[in-house]
Amino acid sequence: MNLYADLCELLRVDQVTQNDAERMRHGQDESYHRPQLPDVVVFPESTDDVVAVLRYANDRRTPVVPFAVGSSLEGHVIPVRGGISLDMMRMNKIREIRRDDFLVCVEPGVCKEQLNAALKRYGLFFSVDPGADASMGGMAATNASGTTTVRYGVMRDQVRALEVALPDGRVIHTGSLAAKSSSGYHLNGLFVGSEGTLGVITELWLRVHGLPESVSAARATFSSIAACASTAVAVMGAGIPVARMELIDEPTMRGVNRYRNTSFPEAPTLFFEFHGNASGLQQDVSAVREIAEGEGCASFSVETTEEGRKRLWDSRHVSYPAFRAQFPGKRSLATDVCVPLTEFAAAVSYTRSLLDEAGMIGGIVGHAGDGNFHAQIIVDPDDPQDVGKAHDLTDRLVHYALTSGGTCTGEHGVGLGKRAYQSAEHGSSLELMRSIKQLIDPNNIMNPGKLVGD
Ligand SMILES: Cc1cc2nc3c(=O)[nH]c(=O)nc-3n(C[C@H](O)[C@H](O)[C@H](O)COP(=O)(O)OP(=O)(O)OC[C@H]3O[C@@H](n4cnc5c(N)ncnc54)[C@H](O)[C@@H]3O)c2cc1C
Questions:
Q1: 68 touches 134 (CB < 8 A)
Q2: Does domain 328-413 have CATH number 3.30.70.2740?
Q3: Domain range list for the chain
Q4: What is the pLDDT of residues 81-118, one digit of tens each?
């Protein structure tokens, strides 16, 4: 079998490559996991192309790993058993916008910013907002979320219907365009979060939202992370419909100031965004200010202009590269646990104590309204002791989260990095998940060695 020659015959020559730079690009993601190269990279342009590749690969038991932007953080796209990296980014058309149904139909390679630019003309926006300009296919495959989840929900909440190419080449359609349904098993929910291990998503119908009439933002600084966390709980308890409520710790704020040449106070900070009409927003902002002051906030500033809001949110959005940029030549390991809201403050303090005890450099950011947070740990990928210490810390943090009733990953997904915790988290349900994988992909060609795989 000559994989490259066969695929060139199935598709066009310019849709298949064995170029070293492309294989390297498709052999890694944004994580610290060591790259492993695919044998060949294929660029499908239609569902038919995907089906042709899957039929071929299934017949020959060749691994297929869907690849989009490659922004995942747990080694999801690394082809640990070689084979085909299936780059979905040429399937990037917005097929239909149904304004009054608040729905959009897209190909999987459409990215967040591209979609929002197109929706703006219709007074709409797509709410899921991870830090990277990720693709709709990748975001669905990881059940991504981000800063706006506290108000609008995760990716699974936005997916109405999917077209999926199964490993044997069958194409199925899941869900419907209706806002709700009590009909049948929830297959949208199964494929969302399946990380390319069950099939290839070739089309998505997504829920979108009306652009709010007014938006304002605020920033509150505190003397401790614990005070940030208790403010977040109190805001949620008061039922204030914040659109974003994000936590950044002191070391991360320091990194942001250096990276952007800004002079934000270098203290534990909560960032807020409010969506609604002008008078409602004023009430929401005052209510949050009152709560923050009650929790002892050191400063509270409000941004109502678009420019001010952009500056404020830019500092949250760049926090990941900004922190890492302080340590050139190093990689970062981003932890991602989610706990019940009442456990959030203790879990964040525990993480800081683990970092300090281990003598490791790390910054903490969190989606404070969801109980989801990340420690970005700086590691030298060539120093096994350093990587080992970071793993040990992640391990302890995950076990802490699981014992608190939480999960080993709130949004980044399992990939390679969180496979070891699947049994501890899911117990006997893991066997059912493995049976589902076996039923849909009996030859184990789809992203083998990930999620529930060995
Ligand atoms: C700076 C930064 C900040 C981030 N912040 C967040 C955050 O706030 N929230 C969050 O959730 N994530 C965050 N992430 C992680 C990442 O952006 C998300 O996991 C995102 O959903 C990955 O999308 P992608 O297009 O890059 O997919 P990729 O990384 O290319 O792929 C991800 C997974 O999806 C599979 N896949 C891709 N396309 C398809 C398809 N069409 N069909 C089936 N499977 C497919 C792949 O096989 C892989 O398993 C962040 C990453 C970075 C670098």
A1: yes
A2: yes
A3: 3-89, 91-210, 214-321, 328-413
A4: 999 999 999 999 999 999 999 999 999 999 999 999 99
Contact residues of ligand 1, CB 6 A cut-off: 29-30, 65-73, 76-77, 88, 108, 130-132, 134-135, 137-139, 141-142, 144-146, 195-196, 200-201, 320, 411-413, 447
pTM score over 0.90: yes
Whole-angstrom CA distances from 437 to 202, 441, 448 are 19, 6, 10
Tell me which of 1.10.3720.10, 3.30.465.10, 1.20.1070.10, 3.30.930.10 is the CATH number of domain 91-210.
3.30.465.10
Distance from C-alpha of 98 to C-alpha of 122, rounded to nearest angstrom? 9
**From the CA of 199, how far away is ligand 1's center (Å)?**
16
Query: What is the domain class of 214-321 according to CATH?
Result: alpha beta
Query: 364 near 374, Cβ under 8 Å?
Result: yes
Contact present, 188 and 162 (Cβ < 8 Å): yes
Share in percent of the chain as helix, strand, coil (round to 5): 40, 20, 40
Fold observed for domain 3-89? 3.30.43
Rounded distance from Cα 209 to ligand 1 centre (Å): 22
- 3-89 and 214-321 share one fold: no
Please write the tens of the pLDDT for every residue from 53-69: 999 999 999 999 999 99
Spatial distance between the Cα atoms of 369 and 151, rounded to a whole number of angstroms: 9
